[in-house]
Every structure is written in structure tokens, then in C-alpha cells.
Amino acid sequence: MKTFMINTLLTLPLLAVALPAPSAGPGEITAEDIIKVAPATASCAGRGPQCVTAYQAAPAIANSFQKYGIVSFGSQAAVVSTILYESSNFEYDSPVDPVAGKGTRNMQSAQFNEQYASTLGLTSTDDTVAVLNQDLDTSFGSAAWYLSSQSTVCPMSMRNEMHALNPAGYESYVSDCLQTGELADREQIWNSLLALKQW
Fold first, then answer.
1. Contacts from 100-106 at CB under 8 Å and sequence distance 24+?
2. Mind listing the pLDDT tens digit of every residue in the chain (199 residues)?
3. Which residues pair with 103 in a beta bridge?
């Protein structure tokens, strides 16, 4: 009996070392993460003057997650999927066919750009979106701001579903939060981001 107890006690530290550490949530998104899903973002060669690379975008996106409290991997992937889709892999910060007031890297409407600018303490102008696009943190931050600020259409229950990596949560994000029917291509990007498992 004593021998059994001694052997058991001796193995306890080994067992403790072998146990996996609790998940600390997502790390910080990197350019390499983005390029794995959207290789075109590695370079702006042959792309338009509004283009930025993943190396420029990743720090701005990471800053937006911290600033607007987007903490789960599923929700962060949703925000990145929106930016990649709307900006055509970071090529544009305004629509190819101009729409008054529409733009930033998630191509939000003039109404939301005015709200966004106000929260940042920026003065509304005849071209507010151009002011927002002057700074990468501001231009890329709009998607995270939108998700965190529009709680009526982007409720925490939906974000919890995305945190659980539930496709129904992402579908609600697209249809109810973003209020668009363009699901298939967006969801493909989201799933590709989720396949990375973590940043």
C-alpha cells in the first residue's frame, strides 16, 4: 500500500505538467494569418492606389479588436471576413462606383460613417469618408466599431453564437447585423479564417 501511494504521489507532478493549459482566447492577428486566407493581400503590385497589404492592415485590425472589445476568435474572424469581402482583399477603401458618403474598409454607408466619425471626435465634412480613410486605424477600425456599437441589430446573443463558432451566429451577423443577403462568399471567407484555429 505504501509503495502504491509513493508511486502515485511521484507521478502527480508529471500529470500536472502534461495537462493542457486553459485557453487564453485569440492572440493577435498577423499578416501571415491573413495571407493564408487571402494570398492577394501579400502585395499591392498591379492593384489600385487605395490598396494596402496585409502587413499594413494587420496591426490596424488588431488595434480595432482591442479598442472595441472584439475578444472572441469567431467574432474577430467575422469582422475580418467583412473587411476582406467589402474591400476586395484590401484593394479599396471606397466603392469602385462611388456612392456618396460610403466607404472605409468595410464599405459602410454614409449614415454609419457620420456616427463613426462623431464617436472619434472628427468634424463632419462634405467628404467624411475621406477623412476616415486618411488613417489606417480609423479606416480598418470601422468594422469592429460597427459590430460593437449597433447592439440593436448586432446583439450579444449573436456574438456569443459566433464565439461558439456556430454557423447560425455568422448567418445572423450577415443577415441581421450587416443587413445583407450576400452570405455564401462571406461565409466561405469566415470558414477559411476559422480553419486557422487561432491567430
1. 101/128, 101/129, 102/129, 103/129, 103/130, 103/132, 103/133, 104/129, 104/132, 104/133, 104/138, 104/139, 104/140, 104/142, 104/143, 105/57, 105/139, 105/140, 105/142, 105/143, 106/82, 106/142, 106/143, 106/146
2. 434 334 443 433 333 333 333 333 468 999 999 999 999 999 999 999 999 999 999 999 999 999 999 999 999 999 999 999 999 999 999 999 999 999 999 999 999 999 999 999 998 888 999 999 999 999 999 999 999 999 999 999 999 999 999 999 999 999 999 999 999 999 999 999 999 999 9
3. 108
